[in-house]
Amino acid sequence: MGSDNQKNKLNWEIREYHTESFGIFFRSGSLLFSGNSPFQKIEVFANDTFGKVLLLDGLVQTTEKDEFFYHEMLAHPACATQPSLDSVLIIGGGDGGTLKEVLRYPVKRVCHVEIDLDVISVATKYFPWLSEAQNDERYELYVEDGAEFLRRTEEMFDVVLVDSSEPIGPSAALHERPFYESVMRCLNPGGVIVPQLGSPFYHLDFINECVSFFGELFAEPKLYIGPAPTYPGGSWCYGFLSEGTDPFQVVRTLPPGLKYYTQDIHRAAFVLPAFMIDATVNS
User: CB of 96 within 8 A of CB of 120?
Assistant: First the structure.
């Protein structure tokens, strides 16, 4: 697939453009890994501020320094509000951060579906929390397309977390209505689906498209937001989709060791800024 230590060049810069005239850059002392899987280009580089950084097709997926913002906000609002956590499904998330957060709870079983085994292999080497999570006896890995898994499975889940990348390439189907119809078929009564939906600033039109069909599938779909320092715009949007679970009621004792998520953060995250309300709720 690729090789380690392909570059060791001081002041090497990685630039991710969010528009034609703006983006984010990292200065790196070394490129630790670069290779191509059957689905995408995978790179890991070192940065003095954020530690090791994982790129997929040139886009930042996770960093050692700030991964907890995104992964805690994707996993904990669903897990903390769910009385039953017998079975959790994670779709995507090959870096293992979401898995790490789910396993903090007394969940009986975590089913992880990731299409790209090479992402898991690289993350296992460079992001050690993944290798630790993979050794948990509650963990089951399925290397296949998430949409296809949902079409064929007869299993039911209390929580489904959609830790997808951008709605292009292998992740495109994970952002469409037929996918969510398949997820609903596999959701236990009162269960929760939480997808990541992108940047409230840069991806608002896409978020609004999702809200439109969420409203056709769920009685009261909710959005919430949280910080993500190395993602476009510095904040990120998530959906909270359920029939029967109160999104504002935390019913579980939170696990120790969290860096961002708290009960107060949970409640505040559902308070949307005016521009999002105008574009989504009031559209």
Answer: yes
Domains of the chain in sequence order: 2-63 (2.30.140.10), 67-281 (3.40.50.150)
Could you list the active site residues?
163
Q: Express each pLDDT in 143-161 by its tens digit.
A: 999 989 999 999 999 999 9
Beta carbons of 81 and 111 less than 8 angstroms apart: no
The C-alpha atoms of residue 47 and residue 55 are separated, in whole angstroms, by 13
pLDDT in tens, 94-131: 999 999 999 999 999 999 999 999 999 999 999 988 77
For residues 197 and 276, the answer to whether their CB atoms sit within 8 Å is no
Rounded CA gap, 173 and 191, in Å?
22
Q: Is 51 helix (H, G, I), strand (E, B) or coil?
A: strand
